[in-house]
Every structure is written in C-alpha cells, then in structure tokens.
Amino acid sequence: MNDEASKQLTDARFKRLVGVQRTTFEEILAVLKTAYQLKHAKGGRKPKLSLEDLLMATLHYVREYRTYEEIAADFGIHESNLLRRSQWVEVTLVQRWCYDFKNSSQL
Predict the structure, then answer these.
(1) Which InterPro entries match (predicted)?
(2) Owning domain of residue 20
(3) Which of 20, 74, 101, 102 is the most exposed place for a label (fewest CB within 10 A)?
(4) In the chain, how many domains are there?
(5) Is the pLDDT of residue 87 over 90?
C-alpha cells in the first residue's frame, strides 16, 4: 500500500495496517522531511520513492518482517535502493527522534 492508498483509509484502519497512529506517522514524516532537506540542501536527483512511501515501506518491514525484495516489488523500486534508504530512515529517527527500532513495541 502506498501513501495515496493510505489517505483513503479511516484512522482505525490506518493504525491496523501501518502499525502507528496517523498523527504519529505525520510526526515521523515531519522529522524525515527536515532531515532530508538538510541532507539535500544543495540539490540532487529526485528520488523515485517519496518520503511518505519510504516511511510506509520501512514500517512495513519493521512490522511484518517481510523481505526487502517483496516490499521493493510492491513499491516498484530495486531492493538495494529500498535497503539503503530504509537504513537512512532508521538512523535518522534514532538520531533525531530518539526512536529505537530494535524495541518495536513502541509501534
């Protein structure tokens, strides 16, 4: 499920499928957008996967433990690209939002 499809969901259904409240998702997304703007202040190539979809894919991995290959196929990108960018999401959230992905009970 990508970000466009998730906008059609009710808040309760969003929580069931993604694993976090919609407000929490938006807070995490705000942190990632700030970090992305700092990292790419000088410009660069536009990514194939939006930050919303990248966060959604990362949460799918953390919640369901599907392989990166399966998730990458769902989002239409290469597995190595998803792996690299998901690791950036995890590191960024640990540094800036004090979120511990190893203790996924916070989801």
Answers:
(1) Transposase_HTH_dom
(2) 3-106
(3) 102
(4) 1
(5) yes
